[in-house]
Design goal:
The protein has 269 residues and is of the alpha/beta class. Helix content is 32%, strand content 22%. The longest helix is centred in the last third of the chain and has 21 residues.
């Protein structure tokens, strides 16, 4: 995953809106007051700060990302939050291995190809203490649907954006949410389960969350245009499409997909 790869928003507040929690309710009772938690692909660290609000500030929170581009300045960071530059598709330094009660990962679907999921899992699972949990949230972006809030909502332009994005990314969208349970099993995790949440479960959040997804898609598309990818829309075409998509949102259009929260636990022995 390159530092400039544009990914879906992974903020803490957005996580709470889309799935209803930061830490899965079945994991929370296992976390003591001095728990240590890692967030992979942390970006701005918003999920870590949301954990402070949800769990209390006695825990230790470490955010990992391939670049410090989005790390917040120290004056805006809680004392128990720490950031590290790490490529999660490479083995972690020994100082981090076996240290965490929970490892959290969110929305890597736009960055990973078919073979990357197992590679990343093999790198991050060793971070867990015996008995620690991994909570991995991934969307099923193969089944994105463009829907109407109102009978006369316009969906043509938003549909064009979704089709352009999905046809360009292709079959890579089939993996992650569908393959992680099997990867967990192969790597020896126990107490495995999935939680599936609809992205449009909150009526008032349908359009705001759809706008975040569209912003991510346009960011990806502009990187593609800037890199001169074959078949890429031009910057001018993307600007025009973005204005048209905004009109669709104003009319009540939104997108829907399922989010899979895939949980596993490292054996105690």
């Amino acid at each position: 995953m390159s530092p400039d790869h544009y990914e879906y928003a992974r903020g803490g507040a957005e996580s709470e809106r889309t799935v209803g929690y930061c830490v899965h309710p079945k994991i929370r009772p296992t976390l003591g007051p001095n728990a240590r938690i890692a967030d992979i692909g942390t970006a701005t660290g918003a999920w870590l700060e949301a954990c402070n609000e949800e769990l209390g500030t006695g825990i230790t929170l470490d955010g990992f990302d391939i670049s410090d581009l989005n790390f917040p300045p120290p004056e805006r960071t809680s004392p128990n939050v720490h950031f590290h530059i790490v490529d999660a598709k490479q083995p972690f330094a020994a100082q981090f291995l076996g240290q965490y009660d929970l490892v959290h990962i969110r929305f890597m679907a736009s960055a990973n190809t078919r073979d990357c999921w197992a590679v990343m899992a093999r790198c991050v699972i060793p971070l867990l203490k015996p008995g620690g949990y991994i909570q991995w949230e991934e969307p099923d972006l193969w089944q994105v649907r463009v829907l109407r809030n109102e009978a006369d909502s316009c969906t043509d332009n938003l549909g064009h954006l979704v089709h352009y994005w999905s046809s360009s990314v292709g079959e890579n969208l089939l993996y992650g949410f569908s393959t992680l349970p099997h990867i967990y099993q192969l790597l020896g995790l126990v107490e495995r389960f999935e939680d599936v949440i609809a992205s449009d479960r909150l009526l008032h959040n349908r359009i705001p969350s759809s706008k975040i997804s569209a912003q991510a898609a346009f960011g990806w598309a502009r990187l593609r245009a800037g890199n001169g990818a074959a078949g890429a829309l031009s910057m001018e075409q993307l600007d025009e499409l973005e204005r048209a998509v905004e009109r669709d949102f104003d009319s009540g259009a939104y997108i829907r997909y399922d989010i899979f929260v895939i949980v596993g636990r490292k054996p105690l022995q």
